[in-house]
Amino acid sequence: MASVLVPVAYIIIVFGSLFIFSYFYRKQAASRIPEPYFTSHPERNTYVTLLQKTDPPTPEVILKSALVRRAIADVLRVMRIREDKPALQNLVQKGSVGDDLLNSLLAAEKEMEAEIIEVMNEANSFVEGWGPIIFPTANEMIANEKMRAIFEQTGDRRTELERRYGRKAQNTPNIAPITVTMTPSNSVPRAAPQANEQTTVENAATSDAESQSKSKQGKKGKKRK
After folding, report:
1. H and E: helices and strands count for the chain
2. Is there a contact between 108 and 121 (Cβ–Cβ < 8 Å)?
3. Residues ≥6 apart with Cβ < 8 Å to 60
4. How far apart (Å, rounded) are the C-alpha atoms in residues 198 and 181?
5. Are 46 and 67 in contact (CB under 8 A)?
């Protein structure tokens, strides 16, 4: 009988200790405040500072520009959250990363939802209907900035490739810009078209007279026969 109770007591002690440890660990983790996924939001702070400035008040153009920069920063953060969330979930499932980092990302995602609503309301306060299109506009500006950065790095990249491979790239011919000069319609001389029209009318009248004379001669020839 004692040989049966010993393994049972051992199993109860082991599982009980694991249960107690997991209970207190989860309670401590729930009470712990997760570190923010993003440290700060400078664009939002700048906009709020400009909005609260009253002496002198900030011009509306500057406020709109600051709001657009804030929307651009929000779009970049949303893109980063969408890229990092699946990877973090896989790492948490494998046990490579703790739950704290994933919880901070989920908290940042909820914060960004509230931030997007706030930005849309601020945009509608300036111009009615601007809220739904401010984030597509910010997305287009991000794409344009990326294209401009690539274009500006073309010269440095070309120099690096020339240095690496020891040969210079062929110079592309420069295409001269085509200039088109528009002439006002009032300055076009009317003499030449009138002369051409008069010549055309005279030629038509001459041909009509010749055809009439030929037809008369043909009629006279038939009468003589």
Report:
1. 7, 0
2. no
3. 126
4. 30
5. no
Reading the block at residue 5, the tokens are 């109770």
Q: Distance of CA 144 to CAs 69, 91, 139, 141, 150, Å? A: 14, 34, 9, 5, 10
Q: Full-prediction pTM beyond 0.70?
A: no
Contacts with 115 (C-beta within 8 Å, 6 or more apart), sequence order: 41, 44, 74
- Reduced to 3 states, what is the DSSP secondary structure of residue 54? strand
Residue 67 in contact with residue 134, Cβ under 8 Å?
yes
pLDDT tens digits along 38-85: 888 999 999 999 999 888 899 999 999 999 999 999 999 999 999 999
Q: Calculate the CA dihedral of residues 90, 95, 100, 101 and round it to 10 degrees.
A: -40
Tokens 């030449």, residue located: 192
Distances (CA, A) of 7 to 13, 19, 20, 35: 10, 18, 20, 44
The torsion defined by the Cα of 38, 39, 44 and 45, in degrees rounded to 10, comes to 170
Tell me the C-alpha distance between 164 and 113, whole Å.
47
Average pLDDT (96-116) is 89
* The amino acid at 28: Q
Strand partners, 57: 54
Contacts of 118-122 spanning 24+ positions with Cβ under 8 A:
119/67, 119/70, 119/71, 119/74, 122/47, 122/67
Three-state secondary structure call for residue 208:
helix
Partners of 54 in the β-ladder? 57
